[in-house]
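Hi V.,

You were right to ask for the full record rather than a summary. Here it is.
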Amino acid sequence: MLKRASGGRGAAVLAQYGPRMANRYEYAVVELREGMLGGKMSGEKLQNVLNQHAAQGWQLKTITSVEVKGRVGPGGVEGVLVTFERQVG
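Predicted structure:
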């Protein structure tokens, strides 16, 4: 909170008082891929994940395209990491 205090020759000085509490957040990261062997990412699948998390108070922070290690074979498949954020406390 700021309060206005007068300084010399009528100059206005802003003085800060009281402790400031920083906002605290928690994060959830969801890995999405269409299948074990890859395939096209479904917009409907992503939309469902976004809506499910929004209903629990999460906000979308980022969506990052990544190569996700699959359980079948040595290579990875393309997918996305969806990061959500919500304020705690």
